[in-house]
């Protein structure tokens, strides 16, 4: 042990002597400074909070939830379809009155800010919210998405997500758009990736929902990714992408890949 200490002391002395010979001593040169690595600078400012806008599309629209106007339609669209509430922290609801009270409670919240999805026929067929709103960080999430069977797997279901994303990036000025879901909710995870969100990872044992442990999968879309995502959405929603029976000619995922390849080839 003593020999090891003596050798360490000798080596330290030799190292110091070498530094001195090369000018690394007080009064001549300071020790080299390693600058920390930092992220890119971001312009100052905050994003805007969501408001009671009406987002018009060709298959329908998205508007601020109004329980008095939308409640009956939403109850008729969701009643008896208990599976749509499986991964939510609320529902299913026993009757229309209980559901109506819940809608009134949701409308009163500023975060999440609740919207109804309205069909071309004027019926409310689903709900989506903008939540976890952090304007100073320019981060926001789309969540609490309740699609009735009438809305699921329809052009309007996709268009509603496009309208909200366009509103978030183009009008409100957010940098990061999030989507989170239970890892066991495979349909939600597939939907996120189809819409152009990127899987980021899993928060294990993140929540307790209805007495059960939940691992949460995180997805995001960023502002610099949005232009190509927007282009793919608009190409998919174009009338010429649907045949006479309303079936898509090209999938949203395929269009997004082709747009990315074209963009990379043009650089």
Please tell me about this protein's structure.
This protein is α+β, with helices and mostly antiparallel strands. The protein has helices at 2-21, 67-78, 96-107, 155-172, 186-195, 226-237, 252-266, and strands at 54-56, 60-64, 113-119, 124-134, 139-147, 176-182, 198-209, 212-222. α6 (226-237) packs across α7 (252-266). The radius of gyration is 27 Å and the shape is globular. It starts with a helix and ends with a helix. Residues 19-24 have low confidence and may be disordered.
Strand order of the largest sheet: 1-2-3-4-5-6-8-7
Give the averaged pLDDT, no decimals: 91
Beta percentage is 15-25%
Low-confidence stretches: 19-24
H-E string: HEEHHEEEHEHEEHH
Q: Nearest-angstrom radius of gyration?
A: 27 Å
Given the C-alpha coordinates, what overall shape results?
A: globular
Number of domains: 1
CATH topology: Aminopeptidase
Secondary-structure content class = alpha+beta
In CATH's first tier, which class applies? Alpha Beta
Total E-strand runs? 8
**How many angstroms does the end-to-end distance come to?**
63 Å
Q: Work out the helicity level.
A: 25-40%
Q: Give the full name of the CATH homologous superfamily.
A: Gcn5-related N-acetyltransferase (GNAT)
Second-tier CATH architecture: 3-Layer(aba) Sandwich
**Largest sheet properties:** 8 strands, mixed
The tally of helices reads 7
């Amino acid at each position: 042990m003593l020999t090891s200490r003596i050798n360490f002391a000798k080596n330290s002395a030799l190292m110091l002597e070498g530094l001195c010979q090369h000018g690394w001593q007080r009064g001549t040169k300071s020790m080299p400074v390693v600058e920390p690595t930092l992220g890119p600078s971001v312009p100052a400012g905050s994003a805007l909070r969501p408001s009671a806008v009406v987002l018009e599309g060709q298959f329908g629209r998205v508007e601020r939830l109004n329980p008095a106007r939308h409640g009956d339609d939403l109850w008729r669209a969701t009643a008896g379809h208990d599976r749509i509430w499986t991964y939510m922290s609320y529902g299913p609801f026993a009757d229309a009155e209980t559901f109506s009270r819940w809608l009134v409670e949701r409308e009163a919240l500023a975060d999440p800010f609740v919207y109804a999805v309205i069909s071309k026929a004027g019926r409310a067929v689903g709900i989506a919210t903008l939540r976890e709103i952090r304007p100073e960080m320019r981060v926001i999430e789309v969540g609490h998405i309740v699609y009735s069977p009438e809305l699921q797997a329809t052009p309007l279901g996709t268009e509603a997500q496009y309208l909200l994303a366009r509103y978030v990036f183009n009008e409100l000025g957010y940098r990061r758009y999030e989507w989170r879901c239970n890892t066991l909710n495979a349909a939600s995870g597939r939907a996120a990736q189809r819409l152009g969100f990127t899987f980021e990872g899993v928060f294990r044992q993140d929540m307790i929902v209805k007495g059960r442990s939940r691992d949460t999968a995180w997805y995001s879309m960023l502002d610099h990714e949005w232009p190509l995502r927007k282009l793919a959405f608009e190409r998919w929603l174009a009338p010429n992408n649907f045949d006479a029976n309303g079936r898509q000619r090209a999938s949203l995922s395929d269009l997004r890949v082709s747009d990315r390849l074209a963009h990379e080839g043009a650089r």
